[in-house]
Specification:
Methylamine Dehydrogenase, Chain H, 2 domains, 4-stranded antiparallel beta sheet, 27% strand, disordered N terminus
């Protein structure tokens, strides 16, 4: 080959720098690509969510459904498996951006090389090997094809086309069926509402006296100064009545007047229940039929959520319930169907969990899922859509929060890493703020003194000044996974998913103290006077003083059943939902058992006496509202 005189141009240093940058970026992308492929092959070949050990325990539970120790092992393994899965998914999310960034730098560097013209060796036309143009083209094409194949393989494995969490879990179906309660009148048909029969909405003052939605009208603060703290669900001490609930559900009870409302569901059946708060008698049961035109597809849910995770809501004249099927319905307080809507089957890794809220004469629905998320307000009387706003976010299990900011009502929603505020009357988005890493959000937002507190497991607990839209602080060390904290006198109190009660300074985010517990928390705390009441998943109620000076226990009570639901307040008594029963805790009086309930025995008018503060051995999907916003 003949070569003409060649000397590097004055631009050769920059040329070599660009060439080196392109090579380094390409190698970096290749390493990231290799890690992504290895990570996802490991995840697919050793699926932690459906590991053989976990599945074997599930099968063993079918033969021994009453084995509580086996259930606990399954829950612990399942929790570890899901953490492993989401850690792998978050690695994929970061790796995808690193891969795209590396490729962009590589392409830009090699593209810039075209600006530098270096004289190249003159090829010998008689030597086929000296066809440098063809050889260079072949090399570039080969490298490009191999690189694209590797990138495609990595992205194909990393992107969540199908999550193993989408697979159905049948652990809930292995539980023994609850004993059937006494026959009660039931209205099982769905009928259209009549405008002529539409009752007037309750006044704001009346709503503030009730417990009409999850965590009540005062953001989990009870109106009474003391609640019962000496009781035992297994022995019946301090239990005013105990009633079996036919279908399981993770939603919390709500109370209006002398009526308790809640829902339950399994794969083949969902229902809403009305219970007399005075005596525990099941007054009515309304079975939910598929809405007209609804998809026959049964959604896939996990044992952590089930088919009835969303807490119902009431305006005093109607009761509203939503299920994992996407069916939303309204009933009157006597159990008669008024209207029913199908919002479509929600698609998310666990099942729908956001609770409902009431604003004036509308029902607010947060319907976040993998694709097609939205928030909507439906007419409480007819079910017609008043407004609907699309949301470009993924799945969320948090519930909407109504607050009053700058002398106007705002609807606060949290999903992924974004906090959004809407006009609850029109659905117009007013502002949004990205304040966390991308994560699954289960705790609902909390509002106190102009500060908004939001949390997402594996991300952060964050405080936001709503007026300035600024993040005041964040805590990435101790974060509630599901339980929504309660705020009192400048401190937040809440339970951690893996176990432990924490007090955070609401002004700085610093953890003031932590009390270790044997089990984790799904239920949210409520506050009466200066005492916090918080159920762990084993059914142990931890009662402690609301103080930042350290954990000061007041009492510890056991329900005798596992608990994920947040209790409601009725008079001076607690309404607690366990795995299979509903309890009313009050003064240490005669217990109304299931058999007593069937015979119609009651304790009319009992509300329980003030509990002793002496230490005694006695879920929840988060929700909060400011009911003073109602007209």
């Amino acid at each position: 080959m003949r070569v003409v005189d060649y000397k590097p141009s004055t631009e050769s240093v920059a040329y070599r720098a660009l060439w080196g940058l392109g090579v380094v970026a390409g190698l970096f992308s290749l390493v990231v690509c290799a890690f992504m492929i290895a990570n996802n092959l490991r995840l697919k070949t050793a699926d932690p969510v459906h590991a053989p050990a976990l599945q074997k325990l599930v099968q063993d539970l079918k033969t021994s459904p009453a084995n509580d120790e086996l259930k606990e092992q399954i829950r612990e393994l399942d929790l570890l498996a899901r953490r492993a899965f989401f850690t792998s998914q978050r690695f994929n999310q970061v790796a995808i951006w690193l891969l795209l960034g590396g490729l962009a730098v590589m392409v830009a560097a090699f593209k810039a090389l075209g600006a530098y013209h270096r004289r190249v060796p003159y090829p010998d036309p008689h030597d086929a090997r000296d066809d440098l143009v063809a050889n260079a083209r072949w090399a570039r094409q080969s490298i490009t094809v191999v690189g694209l194949l590797l990138v495609g393989l990595a992205l194909g494995l990393a992107l969540p086309w199908k999550s193993p969490l989408d697979q159905p879990q049948d652990l809930a179906d292995t539980a023994p069926s609850s004993p059937a309660p006494a026959p009660a009148p039931a209205v099982l048909s769905t009928i259209p509402a009549s405008d002529a029969d539409t009752p007037a909405a309750a006044t704001p003052a009346e709503r503030l006296r009730q417990w009409p939605s999850f965590r009540g009208p005062h953001s989990a603060h009870a109106r009474v100064q003391e609640l019962p703290a000496q009781w035992d669900g297994a022995s019946g001490r301090g239990v005013l009545w105990k009633t079996a609930i036919p279908l399981p559900g993770f939603n919390s009870p709500i109370v209006w007047g002398d009526r308790i409302f809640l829902s339950g569901g399994r794969r083949d059946e969902c229902a809403v229940y009305g219970i007399d708060a005075r005596n525990g008698v099941l007054l009515w049961s309304h079975t939910v039929s598929p809405s007209s035109g609804a998809s026959e597809e049964v959604p896939k849910v996990t044992d952590d959520t089930g088919y009835a995770a969303s807490t119902t809501a009431t305006d005093g004249t109607r009761v509203f319930a939503i299920f994992a099927t996407g069916d939303l319905m309204a009933l009157d307080t006597q159990g008669a169907g008024l209207w029913q809507r199908s919002l479509g089957v929600p698609v998310n890794p666990y099942g729908h969990g956001s609770s409902l809220e009431i604003f004036r004469d509308t029902v607010i629905v947060q319907f976040d899922q993998k694709k097609g998320s939205f928030v909507a307000a439906l007419d409480a009387a007819t079910g017609e859509t008043r407004w609907r706003t699309e949301r470009a976010f993924g799945a969320s299990w948090a519930s909407p929060l109504l607050v009053e900011a700058d002398d106007q009502a705002e609807l606060i929603l949290v999903a992924d890493a974004i906090v959004s505020a809407y006009d609850p009357a029109t659905g117009e988005e007013r502002w949004r703020l990205k304040c966390m890493d991308s994560a699954d959000v289960a705790p609902s937002p909390v509002w106190a003194d102009g500060i908004l507190y939001v949390a997402a497991d594996y991300a952060a607990l964050v405080a936001i000044d709503v007026a300035s839209r600024e993040v005041l602080w964040e805590n990435r060390d101790e974060i509630p996974a599901v339980s929504t904290p309660v705020v009192e006198d400048g401190f937040l109190y809440g339970g951690l998913g893996e176990g432990g009660i924490v007090c955070w300074d609401a002004r700085t985010g610093e953890s003031r103290w932590r009390h270790d517990t044997d089990d984790g928390f799904y239920a949210s705390p409520i506050l009466a006077g200066h005492d916090v009441f918080l159920f762990d998943r084993s059914g142990t109620m931890h009662v402690f003083e609301a103080t930042g000076e350290g954990y000061r226990p007041v009492a510890q009570c056991s329900l005798g059943e596992r608990v994920v639901a947040t209790p409601a307040v009725y008079g001076e008594s607690l309404i607690c939902r366990g795995e299979t029963h509903l309890f009313r805790m009050g003064a240490d009086k005669q217990v109304v058992t299931d058999e007593d309930t069937k015979r119609g025995l009651t304790h009319e008018g009992t509300t329980g006496s003030a509990p002793s503060r002496e230490a005694a051995t006695c879920s929840a999907l988060p929700f909060a509202s400011i009911s003073s916003l109602q007209p």
